[in-house]
């Protein structure tokens, strides 16, 4: 086939043009004609119909492009394209934010910023440096100005200067309270332990767990791990040592007591030690007693320095 | 995936190259890989050749056959994509069941996002049309006609695919003189036997006409120029066969847009361009600062007497 299809569109008579359904996405250099294709025109002459459709939509696209703002550069006239309207998937996910460095993490935790707040600020209106606070400071600008704007519908007794001053005082009071809270928090005994202490505790817990599971696995062989390979630093298997009472003892009371214990257990009503009614929990009593003693001693020795006091 | 070892950069050049492959805030233009399957027809090969010519220079053509079956096993496609840092794959296949088959695959994060299978029903090559072709790397305009591209899921997918392949990268500016050709994609009207939308949704009955025309612009006296279209080729008629839509979660991730200030984009996203300027000729001029030359180390005439004593 050596025939080519050509179509021409001059700007003057828009014969095939009036299709308002063309949407233009200039950012992607694309146009979408969302009206259905007419079956009659389609089946009568396909190539010319396709060309007509293309002429129309391309004309819309070109006219949009040529009306966009341009800049002239060394490489010719450049059109500034708007952002694309059609969303297309990215190739790769968004980059992850860079992990903070140790110092950055620490600074963030502690709220340290590199910039120290300046005592002086530049006043744009006066074109000079003024104090941030203090006599004639920037924070008193509103309350000290000699004239105030009164907005329509405002209470005639309303004093703008006074209200500005009140607002400032409130800010100061709030800051004071926050400062106090900070100090209190800093001096208060830390209820939560330090991270390193927690870590070491976790470590020892994990160690115990590991040893336990190791001992369990050793007993899983037929020979109860007797011929297993030894690992360096392996925990020693500690069995329960059996204890044998002498067959013939001096006192029969002990043997009697043990036999009676077994019988009591069979009864199902074995009483626990120290939990019976009327009996005293000695441990608890001693604890109470020592605490009382300590409180008394502490009040009498009140003049002692707080520094030397130990908390338990 | 496991076949690709992770490279630890040993020098700055490799490091830079690897950094370029990492996720970027502003992405580069997508590269397309054209792969032939084990069996292909002449028509599919020609079709791929022309689609490749339109996509160049951001296209890689695999000259060998590869045993790929995109809808059954995506592992080799993912391997190709990772190895070449490309996210679009166009696979040509041919079988009795699906003659003249073209599978378009899109990747996200090294994994298959979605797929679209097209049958090449009619084809006329670019070389069969005696006309002037567009120049290499010229950005095409792209136009779609039919309501199906707005309503029917398979056709929406096709629209998204062709936009992504040829015009996916949004530009901030464009030289007006660089407009050379337009890709026109039209869906045929639905046959009269299909009346309900659900029927149309279950099948993909409408043909897709893929046409490319060169644009000749001439001044009209007004701001908008006069325009003349000439067919350039290729002209391809597609049918839609199988589709694999993207998983919702993955698509959501892929459609995420970064929040960037326009000011940051203009100033090169925080990258300092120091001592580099472009002069009136459009040449890049760099300024380098050198230390003062150490004249004591200057090599003058060599004589035995001027030789440094040893030690």
Question: Number of helical segments of chain A?
Answer: 8
SSE class of chain A: mainly alpha
> Can you give the mean pLDDT of chain B?
86
Largest sheet of chain B: 10 strands, mixed
Family (chain A): Belongs to the RRS1 family.
Region (Disordered) (chain A): 149-211, 236-256, 289-312
Subcellular location (chain A): Nucleus
Function (chain A): Involved in ribosomal large subunit assembly.
Salient structural properties:
heterodimer; A: 312 residues; mainly alpha; two-stranded antiparallel sheet; 7 strands; 41% helix; flat; B: 311 residues; alpha+beta; 13 strands; Ribosome biogenesis regulatory protein (chain A); nucleus (chain A); Ribosom_reg (chain A)
Please describe what this structure looks like.
The complex is a heterodimer of chains A (312) and B (311). Residues 10-16 and 300-309 of chain A have low confidence and may be disordered. In chain A, strands 2-3 form a two-stranded antiparallel sheet. Chain A has a two-stranded antiparallel sheet with strand order 4-5. Chain A is mostly helical. Helices cover 41% and strands 9% of the residues of chain A. The longest helix of chain A is centred in the middle third of the chain and has 28 residues, at 160-187. Chain A has helices at residues 39-44, 46-66, 102-110, 141-144, 160-187, 195-218, 252-267, 282-300, and strands at 6-9, 22-25, 30-33, 70-73, 76-80, 120-123, 128-131. Chain A is flat and about 125 Å long. The N and C termini of chain A lie far apart (101 Å). Among the domains of chain A are: 7-71, no CATH class; 121-144 and 163-185, no CATH class. Chain B is an alpha+beta fold. Chain B has a domain at 29-168 and 175-248: Rossmann fold. Chain B has 8 helices and 13 strands. In chain B, strands 1, 2, 3, 4, 5, 6, 8, 9, 10 and 11 form a 10-stranded mixed β-sheet that branches. Chain B has a two-stranded antiparallel sheet with strand order 12-13. In chain B, strand 9 and strand 10 form a beta hairpin. The termini of chain B are far apart. The chains are: A mainly alpha (312), B alpha+beta (311). Strand 5 of chain A pairs antiparallel with strand 7 of chain B, so a sheet runs across the interface.
């Amino acid at each position: 086939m050596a025939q080519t299809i050509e179509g021409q569109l001059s700007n003057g008579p828009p014969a095939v043009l009036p299709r308002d359904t063309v949407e233009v996405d200039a950012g992607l250099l694309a146009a979408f004609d969302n009206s259905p294709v007419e079956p009659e025109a389609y089946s009568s002459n396909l190539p010319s119909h396709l060309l007509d459709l293309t002429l129309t939509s391309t004309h819309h696209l070109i006219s949009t492009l040529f009306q966009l703002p341009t800049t002239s550069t060394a490489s010719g006239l450049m059109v500034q394209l708007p952002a694309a309207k059609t969303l297309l998937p990215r190739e790769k996910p968004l980059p992850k934010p860079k992990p903070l460095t140790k110092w950055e993490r620490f600074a963030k935790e502690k709220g340290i910023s590199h910039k120290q707040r300046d005592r002086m600020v530049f006043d744009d209106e006066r074109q000079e440096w003024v104090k941030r606070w203090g006599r004639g400071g920037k924070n008193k600008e509103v309350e000290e100005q000699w004239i105030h704007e009164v907005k329509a519908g405002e209470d005639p007794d309303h004093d703008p200067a006074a209200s500005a001053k009140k607002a400032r005082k409130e800010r100061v009071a709030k800051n004071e309270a926050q400062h106090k809270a900070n100090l209190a928090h800093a001096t208060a005994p830390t209820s939560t332990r330090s991270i390193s202490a927690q870590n070491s505790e976790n470590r020892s817990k994990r160690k115990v767990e590991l040893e336990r599971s190791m001992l369990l696995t050793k007993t899983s062989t037929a020979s109860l791990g007797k011929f297993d390979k030894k690992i360096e630093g392996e925990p020693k298997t500690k069995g329960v040592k059996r204890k044998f009472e002498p067959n013939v003892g001096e006192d029969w009371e002990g043997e009697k007591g043990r036999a009676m214990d077994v019988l009591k257990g069979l009864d199902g009503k074995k009483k626990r030690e120290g939990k019976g009614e009327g009996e005293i929990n000695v441990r608890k009593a001693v604890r109470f007693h020592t605490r009382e003693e300590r409180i008394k001693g502490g009040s009498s020795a009140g003049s002692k320095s707080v520094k030397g006091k130990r908390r338990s | 995936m496991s076949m690709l070892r992770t490279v630890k950069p040993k020098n700055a050049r490799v490091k830079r190259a690897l950094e370029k492959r990492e996720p970027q805030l502003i992405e580069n233009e997508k590269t397309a890989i054209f792969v032939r399957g084990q069996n292909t027809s002449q028509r599919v090969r020609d079709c791929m050749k022309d689609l490749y010519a339109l996509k160049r220079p951001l296209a890689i053509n695999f000259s060998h056959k590869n045993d790929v079956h995109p809808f059954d096993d995506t592992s080799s496609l993912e391997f190709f994509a990772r190895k070449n840092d490309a996210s679009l794959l166009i696979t040509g296949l041919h079988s009795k069941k699906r003659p003249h088959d073209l599978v378009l695959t899109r990747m996200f994060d090294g994994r298959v996002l979605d797929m679209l299978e097209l049958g090449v029903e009619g084809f006329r090559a670019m070389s069969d049309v005696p006309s002037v072709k567009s120049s290499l790397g010229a950005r095409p305009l792209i136009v779609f006609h039919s309501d199906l591209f707005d309503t029917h899921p398979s056709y929406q997918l096709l629209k998204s695919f062709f936009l992504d392949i040829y015009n996916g990268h949004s530009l901030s500016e464009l030289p007006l003189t660089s407009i050379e050709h337009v890709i026109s994609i039209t869906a045929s009207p639905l046959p009269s036997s299909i009346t309900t939308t659900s029927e149309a949704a279950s099948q993909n009955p409408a043909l897709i006409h893929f046409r490319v025309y060169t644009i000749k612009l001439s001044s009209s006296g007004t701001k908008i120029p006069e325009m003349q279209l000439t067919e350039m080729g290729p002209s391809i008629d597609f049918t839609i066969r199988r589709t694999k839509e993207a998983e919702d979660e993955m698509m959501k991730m892929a459609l995420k847009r970064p929040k960037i200030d326009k000011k940051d984009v203009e100033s090169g996203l925080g990258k300092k361009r120091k001592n580099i300027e472009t002069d009136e000729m459009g040449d890049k001029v760099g300024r380098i600062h050198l230390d003062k030359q150490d004249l004591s180390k200057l090599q003058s005439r060599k004589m035995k007497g001027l030789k440094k004593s040893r030690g």
